[in-house]
Amino acid sequence: MLSLLYSVPALICAILFVRVVGPGLLAGASALGIQLIGMLGKLIGDELDRIDETPIETKLATGSTKM
Questions:
Q1: Cβ proximity of 35 and 10 under 8 Å
Q2: pTM for the full model?
Q3: CB atoms within 10 A of CB 41
Q4: Residues in contact with 32: Cβ distance below 8 Å, sequence separation at least 6, in sequence order
Q5: What is the chain's alpha carbon radius of gyration, rounded to the nearest angstrom?
Q6: Of 12, 32, 34, 40, which is most buried, counting CB atoms within 10 Å of its CB?
Q7: At what angle do helices 25-49 and 10-21 cross, to 10 degrees?
Q8: What share of the chain is helix, strand, coil (3-state, %, to 5)?
């Protein structure tokens, strides 16, 4: 779902919201908000994929719990 939000350009999203709610502040803010959610979701997902697992594995190997 986040990849769909990220892949739709802001202009297309803005046109869609103008058609749904009419021209105004709500359409523009909603379009930018949806675009921002998609972009932040992708960035956070990429950063979570880049986490180094070595400290976690070391901690679990010493017998501690996950928390």
A1: yes
A2: 0.63
A3: 15
A4: 10, 14
A5: 19
A6: 34
A7: 140
A8: 75, 0, 25
